[in-house]
Structures
1.
Amino acid sequence: MSPTRVWTGVIGAITASLLVISCAPGAPPASNSGTQKPAAETGAAPAGNAAPAAKEAQPGATVAGEPKYGGRFSVQVVDDPFDWDPTDRGKSLPNQWGLGLAYESLVGFKNGPGVSFEAAQLEPELAERWEVSPDSSVFTFFLRKGVKFADIAPVNGREMTSADVKWSYEYFSRTGEFKDKGLQKAQYDWMFENLKSVEATDPYTVKVTFSEPFAPFLYYAGSPFIPIMPHEIYDQDGHFHDKLVGTGPYQLDVGASQKGSRWMFKKNPTYWQPGKPYIDEVQWLVIRDDAAANAAFQAKQLDWQGDNMTTTDAESFQKANPQAQEIEYVRVAPIHLYMNTRKPPLDDVRVRKAISLGIDRDEFVKVFTAGKGGWALAGAFPDTFTQEEVKGMLKYDPAQSKQLLAAAGHPNGLDVEFIYPGQAYGDQYVQLVQLVQAQLKKVGINLNLVILDKQDWLTRERRHQFQMTFPAGKSLGEDIDSYLYAVFYPGSGTNYGDINDPQLAPLLDQQRRELDATKRKDVIRQAVKRINVDQVDGLALYYPASQEVWSPRVANYGSNFGVKGWPLEHSWLVS
């Protein structure tokens, strides 16, 4: 079977207007077919989020007959979840997948067979419709009535209202009642920059107001990292680290889960979408070895694989499993290296440029994507620049790299500490680290690899206590701002490189306020050029080509970049 290849770069395309979308409870959600108002009424759409033009739709398992109920869907995870609080370390894998199963946001991303992986098509979720002010500073959401949190203590199945939206958004932004509680900085507070107020104007209407235009926010309202959460867990524990109770289709069954072995999510019997989900259970099996996971799939113990699969692996896997369904796409999130710009020797721009010049991106694309990936720019989506433009901005030049090192006072090379969590993210992650080390050694940069416990590694990353590192995969989406502003703006909770560029910061502010899509993209391009060429504050290696494969018994499955935790409310098992 030939996989369908889709290019996620179209989510960086430009649109001219936002949608005011309305959907009756229980009815098929409207997306781009919703009521569209002129930009003067609704505000301009964020650059970096556009439903693509007509394309070849992604494949899905053959849909035969009516949906079937029951069964268990099993997937591999390479590590245990460790934190359910998205304001702290909740984004790291596999935590984010659990958040995506159990919680929901005001807005959703359309997904399923017939919807391209890269399509950024908003649809109603907990809000059945919304309105945006002409200057994109006021966002009013009209909530569904009768939506309930799961019937699990301490929440006990009560109705979700606008008060929960207000509470959640103030918790994520550390405003309102949380302003003076001394909580640690929330890692996604940049999604609420310049928040003025959150008002629950009635039980089913909430108004979110910013002090200035905020182009990306409607897409952030669909982020799985700022879902609507119940206050009872915080009231009882003072945090959300250990409990997970939401309005979503699946909820964690603590009694059926066992650390180091399996994590069980069971169907929410009070889920607001009538008749959904179809599948009874989602089981995570903790399998750290990729070969063991492949064997488990062949033995029909797993129904889905993809997070750690290289293109080469996928080709071999497909030959061994010819009945498996498959989709191939290029990720919007590149492999991104963090360099601490405040710690010597990486505080010297010449050293950072030398590192960039010492990276052979073609080798990464060949080894890990069989030539199907692409060169990447830090802070950019795949279509912010064409591949021709990218290769004109970046180059592999070992001789020039050595010259820059000598000019920076390192004629005999230098040592740099590189921290990482060992096998916590699987074999491919370690292979990536080793190839970076091998390439930089050729230009005289010796990476001293230091393996840390995953918790220690995350803490040191967050506190800027490192020289170089990189995550298993960047959690990007919704809007290009989720890469640019979050990673490179001074003071951002995910600015792990401790970057403080006085010429870059105004550009990052400007692209958030710019409502004209064409002008916004121009500002974004200026910012990306400064990050990658002028200052090398960030370093991206390549855009991975990813594969997902799933069992032929899974019907009506389709993946989307904006959905975490597998979009299973539409799927069912045929056997």
Note: The radius of gyration is 23 Å.
2.
Amino acid sequence: MPRRPFSVAAVLLLAGCADSPPPPDVIVIMTDDQGIGDFGFLGSTQVETPHLDALAAGSARLAQFYVHPVCAPTRAALMTGRYPQRTRAFDTYVGRALLEPEETTIAELLKAAGYATGIFGKWHLGDCAPMRPQDQGFDFALVHRGGGIGQPSDPPGGEGRYTDPVLLKNGERVEWKGYCTDLYFEAALEWIAQQRAAGKPYFAYLPTNAPHGPFRDLPAAWLAHYLERFPADDRLARIFAMISNVDENVGRLVAALAQAGALDNTLVVFLVDNGPNTRRFVGELRGMKTEVHEGGVRSPLLAHWPARLQPRLVQAGYGANIDLLPTILEACGVEAPGDLDGRSLLPALEHGAALAERALVVQAHRGDRPVRHHHFLLRRGRFKLVNPSGFGKQLETAPLALELYDLLDDPGEAHDLAAARPELVAELLAEYDAWFDSTCAPEGEYLPPPIHFGDPAERVVAFTRQDWRRSRSEGDGNWGEQGVWRVRVLETGPWGFTLRWRGEPAPVRAVLHCGPFEFAAEVPPGVGTFELGPVELPLGAHELRVDLHRTTGAAIGPYQVLARPIGG
């Protein structure tokens, strides 16, 4: 499938018009698992967010803004302006958090318009070429792997370390000193200063992995503060410590922009990626992360741009993560592609105009393909149709237990109107079915994109349980004990493979399968890793699988596989 085309010649910068101000610099900040209620400006009396409260006071805000109930789909929607079911990145693991390389991202569009582009934090749309952020339009990338630090994608030596983490800087493994959120903001500020010195507009994407777990090595002062306030709830104290640390960094960022005289013409956008990661305060709403009731899918949206936007709260209508790309492009004077699902929110943010009514669908669930009616909401006007069939359930056919709410009168979704309004339920369900038919490809077309072997942009390839296609799940929780990776071999090799495993008993034999090819070797006793190779691989698209045979029990898959060319 060729990349969706966009023409550099079609890119229009406002700076080209004599009477227009220069295009803004753009910073998008998105936190992970924070939730709609974790802000002072939205009513929380538990967590302290003075800098975000101040940012909100000076921002144009959307009162009703939707994200997906988990993180990778929200990130795909933000990057592309399209529903994640179109882009294939509609879940968070087992190959379903890989963005199709053919998708055109906001970084690619702004880069073509002359912007420098940088990401600092959590990408979660593919760790290997050609899905990495530097493959998808970012000039500079400082990221962790996978969906969070503390997952099977962690580089060796960096397992679970929020403090002194091991991160990837433009694809290279680097050990850092400090707390991860502080490091992202420090790197972003340094990079921003470089772009300003070069006189270049920039797009800085700051998606933090806080306050996502694990919750171990946290900023000491904030942790002590919240443990004193919430001695009976250790986990909540740790989450709030992470949130206040993010808030502190937002304050540093805004202060640095103001000191440089750059704040006025910088568009700073703030949102969260999904509902809160525990059942906690969400205002008058209901729900949490993974749920399709409002508390699981609502985010604040702040747009701070003093040169153009006045502080206001837009109450009429609703927006979503698919709208951020067209909104930012319009703000920058860049022509948007014609195949977007989102629409620009800039007129509403700038003038307070009501957003026109539309049908908006949010759907996310576990599984290998979208399933009709499974765990979705459809919002049209004041009404919301929802089938909360459960994010974690992998279903072939979703049972219908539809709920209908009038969000204007009942924002907390306490009064189900489905039995009283069957004609409206049928009408909205027909709209959902039309969306599903037009958005979701036939079942056979839902394979995730392959990881490249021999791509000149990435000579060493890390295969992890984050991205494999799970074939056996018992024994290792959600990640599975066995699986395959979809690969495209661009270079036969020879290749060497470093195999890592966890737990006992250790394997005694390793077998690598790649399409019709098989390579086996005995594993000597007492080793923790094993070097397999040299191996010549067949060109083309294949499934890669590594079986580690033990003296007892079924073969397991490796924890990680590191592949590198030998002698080249």
Note: Residues 321 and 468 are 27 Å apart (CA to CA).
